[in-house]
Prior knowledge:
about 200 residues; 9 strands; alpha+beta; two-stranded parallel sheet; seven-stranded antiparallel beta sheet
Amino acid sequence: MFGLTPAELRQFRKLSSPRKVQRFLDKDIRYNVEQGGETCRSPRRVLRDRLAHCFEGALFAAAAMRVSGRKPLIIDLVAHRDDDHVIAVFKEHGLWGAVAQSNYSGLGYRAPVYRTVRELVMSYFEEYFNHAKEYTLRAFSMPLNISRWDYLGWMTAEKELFILSELLKDIRHYPLIPEGLRLGRIRPRVYKAGCVGQVKH
């Protein structure tokens, strides 16, 4: 299935729910700051290397959810004066949730309680900030089914998948807040909490 080996399939099948996928990312996958994060591993390589930044983690989560019968969906979150973030999303009982790998404690899992994609994305707003303590989330894409990229072998490729991140940038994005809106700085306690467990570059 999907070019995965029997051993890989067995490992993915253990991740039979979004919560299990998130637990695996949190416990077994180190956050990737190697080479400045300038890699784009396939889910196969993430499983083997036990290393992933947010985009690699989103691809891995999407692949795991695909093996369990869900659509492999990702959303691109666009930031100002900060790194973009990519999350894998899923639907249960008509409500949206997310699985994510992040170096910030507040940008990970979301329970499936959000009625719309925008509502889900806005749940990340307060905890999406840079080291200047600025709110940075600005725009988002709609869920993208990455099975459309199966011709690239994205689930099992040994080469870097930078082409996927470029394709993601080219899809339509939707603004979250009016341009130029003055937001102020985040509270020190929120900043400190968001940096708990952070892997240093």
